[in-house]
């Protein structure tokens, strides 16, 4: 076929002026893909002629798509502070600058400056955590799921772990406690019923195979009505009386009391530490307000055994995580909670939120219809399930656009909103102060194009 003979040669095509300064290796690879697709289309009689300029444009488009970073900044106007899909807790910029300084320089990650010999990477964070929580020792792995697995594998392989049926949770990504236990080698011993578990259930379950009494935070649901569960303080006592390990998988552990009476059913890490537990684990990037990590605190003799588990090397964290986490813990120690964006958003007053929403409304009065409203939101991220907190929103309307269409337009401009009562809402609980002007620009540009 004559048209097949007209397909450009790869070695000549990649010398096109439009490709100057670009990666020759990648341009060659993409060119081969584009020309192969062209060949198939010719054979299938889908095209009748060849436009070389169009082929160049196609290669350039593919090049841009591949080399443009996929991760991008978004404005979270959903009101959900610990939004798993949007990256969970925000990091403080100053903390990140400190971490960058550490990461771009040689450092004492595993070097003891005092003794001039190899040190331990966990010492940097354990010192701060011991001072803050009163624990004997601490360890950090890459997330709380890793912490759960590592603890169970270390102490409960081929041994029984007693857990209430009401706490056999499944969190995002089909992560199930029973399956994690099975993978770790632990034997699950279910007690109680879905809605009720009593102290006697723990006591009656103990036998010669029992290694641990475990409590699991119900991260994404709550059991209401005719229900009861055993306080961890009582579990600690029973475990101690029977020479067993007690362990609380807190999921999203928070360090201090929360506003809006959120502590009612969810005690803080500092409260739990008063019971002198064997082990606790919790996430770094949820209500703690730091980087992704699984934090284990508790008895030194137990932490030492975990450190000897060969799996730890696969789950350990790097210097950037340790630097960021240490800085967050130090903010707690120094009571500089304004340096933790998650806590700052959670504690922002309704008066401040209303003032910001009103300010944006005034800026948009000639652009679209909007109204400042009282609303409610949730913290998110598997924390405080079914507990709503008050917030202030700005409802948006534009011409005859339906809410779902308007939400889509905002989303395509990296502004993530929510729909409430068939109205698009910008919830100011999660809108940063320096983002208000950005939102104004987005909306004005968007509605100008829509005219």
TrEMBL record:
Chief localization: cytoplasm
Keywords for this protein: Coiled coil, Cytoplasm, Protein biosynthesis, Pyridoxal phosphate, Selenium, Transferase
Enzyme class: transferase
GO molecular function: L-seryl-tRNA(Sec) selenium transferase activity
GO CC entries: cytoplasm
Source taxon at top rank: Bacteria
Catalyzed reactions: L-seryl-tRNA(Sec) + selenophosphate + H(+) = L-selenocysteinyl-tRNA(Sec) + phosphate
UniProt pathway: Aminoacyl-tRNA biosynthesis; selenocysteinyl-tRNA(Sec) biosynthesis; selenocysteinyl-tRNA(Sec) from L-seryl-tRNA(Sec) (bacterial route): step 1/1
Coiled-coil parts of chain: 343-370
Keyword presence, Oxidoreductase: no
Keyword Iron attributed: no
One Pfam family in the UniProt entry: SelA
Modified residues (N6-(pyridoxal phosphate)lysine): 286
Cofactor(s) in the UniProt record: pyridoxal 5'-phosphate
Described purpose of this protein according to its UniProt entry: Converts seryl-tRNA(Sec) to selenocysteinyl-tRNA(Sec) required for selenoprotein biosynthesis.
HAMAP family: SelA
NCBIfam families the record matches: selA (TIGR00474)
Protein name listed in UniProt: L-seryl-tRNA(Sec) selenium transferase
Gene that encodes the chain: selA
